Amino acid sequence: MLSSCTTVLYLWNHVRRMQVTPNSSFSSPRLQSQWRVTITGIIQALLYLYCSLWFILSYLLTLFKPDIDEEGHILFTVICLFSFGTNINMGFGQTLFRQRGADLWNKAVQIPQLCGLNRA
């Protein structure tokens, strides 16, 4: 968690410095890319915090009321949500994934028109 927060703070300060300098060698797309990395890092840190807090809460609950999640279904669900969120977060951080997702969305939107279902 400390590593994630440190990385996010470094990137945040770096991007702010790049915005302030008028003769920056960074182009606008590069600055946007750095913001995207910063946001991805923040989301990943929040996912990790959510999962870590649940582990602590789960441990404390089993100390005081051991029969709450005997088979670990809630804990496994939290782990699965963390893994799924991490995959989605890292996937959307990739330009190619976002472009392919946008292409698929545009094709899906055109399906009713191609089938003649969207008559105006």
Q: How does this structure look, described?
A:
The N and C termini lie far apart (53 Å). The protein has 4 helices and no strands. The relative contact order is 0.08. The chain is an all-alpha fold. It has one domain. Helix 1 packs antiparallel against helix 2 and helix 2 packs antiparallel against helix 3. It is flat and about 55 Å long. Keywords: Membrane, Transmembrane, Transmembrane helix.
Summarize the structure.
The chain crosses the membrane at residues 37-61, 73-92. With 120 residues, this protein is an all-alpha fold.
Q: Which outline best applies?
A: flat
Count of helical regions: 4
Share of helical residues:
over 70%
Total count of strands: 0
H-E order: HHHH
- Main sheet properties: none
Specify the structural class.
Answer: mainly alpha
Provide the gyration radius in Å.
21 Å
Distance between the terminal alpha carbons, to the nearest Å?
53 Å
Mean pLDDT over the residues = 79
- Which residues sit in consecutive blocks of at least 5 with pLDDT less than 50? none
What number of domains? 1
Strand content: under 5%
Transmembrane segments: 37-61, 73-92
Keywords: Membrane, Transmembrane, Transmembrane helix
